[in-house]
What does this fold into?
Amino acid sequence: MQRRPVPLASGFPGSMLRTAIWLLSVAILSCLGGVVRAGDLGDPAISPGQEETIARIVGRGMEFPDGCRFVGGEVDHLVIVARYDCPGGEVVFELVHPSQTDEAVAQTEQFALTIRSGTPPSSLQSALLAAIREGEGDFEWSWPAADDDLLEDTDAVEDE
It folds into this structure.
């Protein structure tokens, strides 16, 4: 006596249904290849023209607790470096996009805060985080790879 496969749905034998599901999955995944994922956008960058916002975020001109004061900083496309003079010595923080580090001592909506050097008093770190949270709504990361892709797509449309 020969056994016949038991249909799982609408008269499709099990192996045919599995094959149909597999083919449909491959087709769907192929279509998803065009979906933009965060990792496909490249590294987030700091665009020019945000100097005043960054100065507020790092606390330029603020009085920090424990006698610490902002003494300078730099912006280098992907990172903001902020230096503070404290009674216990210089403290240097870096602010980067949260996707760019897993060594953050704290994180806000738009920034991950890391310590490059020194030992900050906890009150400095807390005050700095408050300044970052207060000013980060005016800050905007740019995504150069995504912008380049958009320009390439626009050029392709104009050439037609």
Remarks:
- The helical segments are 14-32, 51-58, 122-135, 144-159.
